[in-house]
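A common beginner's mistake is to predict each chain separately and then try to dock the pieces by hand. The better habit, illustrated here, is to supply every component at once so that their relative placement is modeled jointly.
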Amino acid sequence: MTATTAIGAGLNRIEAAAKVTGAARYAGEIPLDGHAYGSVVQSTIARGQVTMIDADAVLARPGVLAVLTHDNAPRLHRADDTDAELLVLQDDRVRYRGQAVALVIAETLEQARAGAELLDVTYQPEDHDVVFAADHPRLYAPEHVNPNYPTDTSVGDVDAALASAAIVVDATYSTPAEHNNPMEPHAAIAQWDGDRLTVYDSNQGATSVRQALTTLFGLADGAVRVLSEHVGGGFGAKGSTRPHAVLAAMGARFTERPIRVTLTRQQMFAMVGYRTPTIQHMRLGADADATLVALEHTAYSQTSQVLEFAEQTALISRLMYAAPNLRTRHRVVALDVPTPRWMRAPGEAPGSFALESAMDELATACGVDPIELRVRNEPSVEPDSGLPFSSRNLIACLHEGAERFGWASRDPRPGVRRDGRWLIGTGVASSTYPARSAPSTAAATALADGSFVVEITASDIGTGARTALTQIAADELRAPTERVEVRIGDSDFGQAMIAGGSMGTASWSWAIAKACRELLHTLHEIGTVPPEGVTAHADTAEDIKAQAQLSRHAFGAQFAEVRVDVDTGEVRVPRLCGVFAAGRIINAKTGRSQLIGGMTMGIGMALLEEGVMDPQFGDYVNHDLASYHVPVNGDVHDIDVSWIDEHDDRLNPVGVKGIGEIGIVGTAAALANAVWHATGHRHRHLPIRPDRVLTSLA
Amino acid sequence: MRQFGYERPEYAADAVALAERPEVRYLAGGTNLVDLMKLGVETPDLLVDVSALPYEFVQEDLDGLVRIGAGVRNSDLAAHALIRSRYPVLAQAVLAGASGQLRNMATVGGNLLQRTRCVYFQDVSKPCNKRMPGSGCPARKGDHHNLAILGASDQCIATNPSDMAVALTALDAVVHVQDHAGPHEVPLAELYRLPGSDPQRETTLAPGALITAVDLPTLPFARRSRYRKARERASYSFAIGSVAAALDVEGDVVRDVRLAFGAVAPVPWRARTAEAALVGGPVNEEAFRAAAEAELAAAEPLRDNAYKVPLITNLVVRTLAELAAGS
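With all components supplied together, the output reads:
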């Protein structure tokens, strides 16, 4: 492992001054000579056919340069792995409401938007099917779940074990559609130079966007360059190429000018992915001494008619607790809805709400403390696969959190603590997220002046990745951070993992460490740096392929206190406490921020966030930030975040597990468990809105 | 956003003359109108900016009547010493609305005339009788968990979103209006219309009418008043139910009371039935609850908004109890 000097320090973000002074430019702000604007026109039916688009009136408006539709848009190429959602304006089919049906291009943003508003599109609508249900007749078992986990697993005989279990919890939980709302809306500006395409795009991984655009436009390798120096959040919604980037490139090709396409906040609710609603049936069986004998997790989710996305909701139940009889299943239904995609901790976020709520119910049924229940059912190997864990410090997190939170004095009885008009309760839940690495490339260069440059197509979506990677490179190069420049967000630096799946730092640090070590080796051999500098390249593909088969996961424990207003059903969260075991934390400041951010988003998931599908239209009708509520400062009080000093040398050279997702895993369950403890009422459907709480109190 | 013209007159008469055509809108803080223009809900061809008009005052006359200029920013109103001491319900209501940044822009006049936040009204790709008369009301079958239980019609179940207007309604505020006929006064209760069969008509104002000021009658017992707003998050969201109340108690008897509800009706809802039930009656929670229930007997909840009945009832009981206790 690397000798640490910079790693672990709370270094300020390297680009902080540029960001707060506005010098840092985001994709929607990049000015290219002579650029024009594209405004997306979305379908207003959920299923059917575009029968006519009358563009003449719009084309006659001042400033309008073109109206791209399926009739005149450039034809796109597809490969086997092409994301069908990117095949925009290729045919007249409408597969969900909010699908792009045209792009109006004009000299100014206002002209483009006005044209898009006025464009006359005629449809032949067909009956749509948008209502997700666990008894939907078209539910099916997908071939695998995201990204490539088995759909169903089974160990032992769950039914027999449940039949003879002393205590059984059998409950159904559900979570609504939740929408990624990074602060920066998706934006791209595209420019062609012959058959070379340059796109400044807001994404979580420039090389994956480069690959998609290369295929779609039938270009040679190396013909596309994607630049994403600064990105204002993603939460998964920018993890894959999104239609706005394709539309910008199409518009630029059609008009032979640079074209900028920026989605509006409202458009994002249909065009960038969201978290599928889930319905989850949990069956837990235990002995009288609270030892699990059976665990069954059946998860239902929706996908679109465009492509299959199968949320890995029940994955968490395959590894958390030692149930000798263990069955997990996923079923999906394809509806006439926008395609759900990744949203912070796909799988584990909704899955942990069901599993960790059910564990709380089981603790009550068994009459044991919820922490003790988890301790008694701590597995020695991954229950589903039998693989050893590379490291697992869940119990340490639970105990450390209990100490910090003051759990020991808790009265387990629900509905008995009152302060004026408030009911008070506390709850706990476990957290986990896979710790994976993916192949990446990097280059490290020593310059003659004694400084270093590291180039990698990493993506800093606001997490502090640029700063963390600088700390890693500095330690590897045994140089102070001031002498190391890490350049990111340019696909010309070569293939690298996206900032997603909590895999960014784990994957990039590996490639950087390898390149830096190679560079030091070269420098040792040649003695002095030549005037032109010297560069070492690294590719971790073979290293990752050679990794031992292990269960690699981060773990954590979350504690919540809630106050419930008996008159209004309003739930307030005076404090949250999270303790995590996530390998090495590279930057104490940005790492803490990221975990606080995850837990804050967990408050949103538990109490606020809900995409409301209106079956009349097939639309998520509350598609703005006034009606789709995310937490504001007033909702967030004390959040105590800490981590256990965890050294796991079977992960990657730097010992990183990744912390992008785990902060949101378990928060909603801890809060729901606390609401039960406060009120005596179990909320199995999220979010726990005041109207629902008030109704339950009546 | 479509193209539009812009004027910034210095005299009210000029503003009114410019604004008589239906395609013209007054622009004050712009916190709602500009959003609606971006959404295509409002498509004025001319904005008449009223910020140069001399309406940024809060003053008291010799009789103790307080007059608030229509151009006073929400932040300034809530911070004003007269308002805070004599009409705490109003200061609290204003501070319960929106965010600090929005309150710094939004004005009294604009706040009174803001539009419903019903999601169907705000989406031009969907029918809405208020926006497009006769096109239908999808909210009845759709998302109405925060829409009206009182005063609605089969044409429209939108709610008035203002917090400030609920307090002003409780205080019997009077609105000063200037239109083509000259200046005149309208009690706030007569400014708003229930939707009936023509929900596109939300006020009794004549075309081009300009709100210039709001009067608060002297109401000594309003020093003991408060606004309680329930909402889905702690700040920066519209009410799911709110109560503005002022209470005058003599011994064990309610001498006078003012009560208005927000987020339950197409207009700020003055609870006159409840007030009548309370006056002369005892000061206890049973009486408060009975009065609220009497008011809400007319409620017609839909599939997903029935919770507003117990919510408002609880808020009435609690707010009056707190006022009675002097807390």
